[in-house]
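User: what does the whole thing look like in 3D?
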Amino acid sequence: MWRRCLWRRGISSSAAGWWDHVGAAPKDPILGVTEAFLADTSPRKINLGVGAYRDDEGRPVVLQCVRGAETKLAGSQFLESLPNAVNTKLVEESVQLVYGKETDIVQERRFAGIQALSGTGACRLFAEFQRRFYPESPIYLPVPTWSNHHNIWRDAQVPVRTFRYYHPDSKGLYFGALMDDIKSAPDNSFFLLHPCAHNPTGVDPNEEQWREISHEFKVKNHFPFFDMAYQGLASGDIDTDSKAIKIFREDGHLIGCAQSFTKIMGLYGHRVGCLSILSVDENQAIAVRSQLQQIARAMYSSPPVHGSLLVSTILGDSQLKALWEEEVKAMVARIIRMRAKLRESLEKLDSPLNWEHITNQVGMFCFSGLSPEYVDHLARKFHIYMTRDGRISMAGVTTSNVDYLANAIHEVTRFGQEDSSQRRSFNAFIPHISYAN
Amino acid sequence: MHPQLPSHLAQGSATDRRLNSLLRHIDPSIASSSLSSMDSQISASPTSGFHGDSVFAHVVQAPEDSILGVTVAYNKDPSPIKLNLGVGAYRTEEGKPVVLNVVRRAEQLLVNDRSRVKEYLPIVGLADFNKLSAKLIFGADSPAIQENRVTTVQCLSGTGSLRVGAEFLGRHYHERTIYIPQPTWGNHPKIFNLGGLSVKYYRYYDPATWGLHFQGLLEDLGSAPSGAIVLLHACAHNPTGVDPTLEQWGQIRQLMRSKGLLPFFDSAYQANAQSVRMFVADGGECLVAQSYAKNMGLYGERVGALSIVCKNANVASRVESQLKLVIRPMFSNPPIHGASIVATILKDRNMYDEWTVELKAMADRIISMRHKLFEALCARGTPGDWSHIIKQIGMFTFTGLNSEQVAFMTKEYHIYMTSDGRISMAGLSSKTVPHLADAIHAAVTRVG
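Assistant: Here's the predicted 3D structure for the full assembly of 885 residues, as structure tokens:
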């Protein structure tokens, strides 16, 4: 078939094109929601899809500390790529943020750090690095997890395995199964962990559970890779939210960590993140970093400077940093208020279902338990958009739309069969790996 | 029967609870003698760790990138007369990096606009930017654009555009080999290899003439398998500065179309390129990677675009949907700042004109440096024909110096360049040309 096409190609204008066989790809399950939302003309529409913070008027927010940093920077910087200076500063500030400034890791420079294209980019760099040095090793991802994790490791050609994490009945942590899966994985496996505000469930291990997990990781010699996308946005406190990482560090794990400044600083469009991998000494860190730089060089050469200058300006200025911490607390406070209001409204409507999980879950998302059918119904009839796994971005909930939302959820669920539909929704949610062709 | 906790640990405490829960996971058949050997592993002290080695202990230091490594070495050199002619970044007469005035203006407009937010861009990037970039490279009246046959996605400068294109080809194109010119930018083979393609070379530069090896090029492309991908530098070839003439481009196009070879243009230096338009005009398909790093001085902001010209609009739309699947697991969506600057400039007539004026000034300064260097070498009677310095195009001169001569120039004259003899003309000024001419003269007369 190809030969025929090619032979005719000499008469270029009339021949078949190269790409006729290319099928339309399915829409991204998260970003596709926003597209559908934008296309909807209803004045009552609500976007609860992508995890981007909104104020109580439903508007996107540029943090004051960011405006402050921008004013400070305006007119001063060179736009040439300064791979060393800017990258280094961002990495310094990032590792101090997640590991703590006074820790041995930071003081002794026992980390390989590289600026990355937000959390996605940091995960991708790590996945490629993992493939390069452990070509046979799979990555263990929690069920469920952010859907793009599957895509990232798959595109890096790392096989994906899963471990149990969330229990749909309790809408909490499936701890026993989680520990079993950690134990039954082959020794020296790579695991991805969400250190706080698990996406999409909002369900996090408590401190004791983290300690058990960390211990078992030592017994099994597993590699812990943390995807830290919400430091500060879980509890409102930067240090509290990095507790899991602290626990693992105390146990001597040499972890890997992807950090994103996208949500915690409202810098969505700027793609600022950091990948760090801990090492036994500075020399090893230098070697690892050199490899990461090679991987980045063949992907995009160097990351964009503007966003990273904003981040390092904020973190490097005590006033701006204090302002930032206040603004993070305020974002978390609003989200917690909305959680309380939504649960209260549903309970007032005498919903037959249990909505405790709305206030138990932590971070930006509520894993509602709504089935894909309910989700579709909410979109069609009520112009309310969320991902089909029933994940609600609480940041999209406001004082003025929370009652409408509660009513809509009540309408679609009041007669439904909770257990089977939620179990169906959970199973439907388990991601199928391949979108290709 | 559960193993006993050692007595010194048997107080009620958080550590106790922890140890108890840990012990619950331990096989109850473990004898107490084994338990004491486990004491060393399970310790109540929160700071005692299991300090094993890293799982990445076997990772060796990667070699320095040969181009960026030049700047690293330059920075380390304490000599006051050192000269950096390595990376292709524009410098003023005073040796300073440049932010174009029109770029500063655009940035100021963006900062002052309080209604602007920092939301995610769509996966394919800023729509305005994409449209304007396509118009810039293909021409606003291009039938391919009019007929919606072009899909353009924002990527991270030239590198990112090439990588996304390579990944797309690796998944959806039946040929996995890309032919790249000999020589080419050092990062090209790495981008394509890691993007899933294998690399072969076609003859391009003729060291005997310091010009194009046209015969070799036609032969090598002529013997490539049908359907093979071919990388073409749209203009200002890096590192040689040697470009085909328009007539030669015409022949290359004919040959490629007759063999069904797929063109992949890398347009890193100039806003528009006749070579690209010539290929698009015949109705055929191609890929184009565009970079704004050098032509708008936006190096650090990583602004670029990948365009794929398809046979019809339907195919273009499906291709775009597949490009999204490449992008999402790589970086989700592209950075907003640089693309916003570019779009602001391209869509405003005055700013666009201002940009072309500043671009011309940069190009003129580089041309003047070429002439000054050429004259300086002639004045010194440096052996050899140096006319290629004024014939080659763009930011670089492929001097023809060999790696020993380059090493000599670095050691004795503190001049930094890549070992293939490529110099970035943008790094020169009237003040530094004599120093470089001296160095070249010395290298040519004293080193083999």
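In plain terms: Chain B touches chain A through 101 residues (CB under 8 Å). The CA atoms of residues 160 and 304 of chain B lie 7 Å apart.
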